[in-house]
Amino acid sequence: MKKTLVALIVLNACAVSSAFAAGNANTWYAGAKFGWSHYADVSGNKDFNDSLAASNDFNVDHDNVGGGVFGGYQITNWLAVEGGYDYLGNMQFNGNNGVNGAKMKSQGLQLSLKTSYALTDDWDLYGRFGAMGYRAETDVAGKNKFETGVRPVVAAGTEYAFTKNWAGRLEYQWVSNVGNSNQIGLSSDVHSVTAGIVYRFGQNDDVAPVVAAAPAPEVKTFNLKSDVMFGYDSAALTDEGKAAIDQLYNSPEMQAAKDKNTTVIGYSDRTGQAEYNQQLSARRAQAVADQLVADGMPAANIQTEGRGASDSVTGNSCDNQSGNALINCLSPDRRVVVQISGQ
After folding, report:
1. CA separation for the pair 286, 63 (Å, rounded)
2. PROSITE patterns of this UniProt entry (predicted)?
């Protein structure tokens, strides 16, 4: 018996590794088990005793193999309802000198509540409490009889998951007073130790935690009209332009954000050579940045860009203009933009 129990423990230990023992709530599972059964506290009626009265020596075989199949519904992570079929094995009493013995075998259907306690994320201890509807059959002195009934069943075990769907379990189970000795000649408690495998349906896939994306930095934009800031075809700030930048720097919005990252972007209209327009827009952006630094903005926080005639504001609205009319129409494209990010 001890060798059998040790073998079952080793088998169960080898069959498992790490995962998640507790199944997800509102899911089903099914499994099978196989192991050792033991008949104990055997009692017999008068016929049984008479059958063996002529013998003073008995060969008693209480142990046999047992097993079964089971299925369950996981109500919560710690509570399930489980039912199944158990073959409880058989027991034999044999007297010496050819004296007739007795043989008993039993099986049953059981229903129980299973409560679990998590030791780790992948290892549970559990208990089961319920009832078994059994069928017990005996052969006493050549007479075959059977009887049915309902008896309490109690079990305790451990379950260890090795994937999100598969788990192994090792379980001890006790069924009280199987058989009625007045009807079939024998009655016995049945103990069993089994190793089992469980498959859980509908388990969730492992999902990495969702990390909320950082909010995009708030960007404050200030538009400065280039024709007011500079003379025509010039990158030197006018007095009016300097005053406009001073006023912008001292505004509540700029003061609240002056220590943030700042980008000064210069633009030109589409007249003239593209390379020249690019250089002019870059010089004008730098002139505005230098004035902001002179007013008190940290130079390390400022960068400049010249984008030439890109990102036109007027689009094709000035296509029918020429000469001074075209220059005046394209005035909104000649601008300097100050952007301050929230980071």
Report:
1. 95
2. OMPA_2 (PS51123)
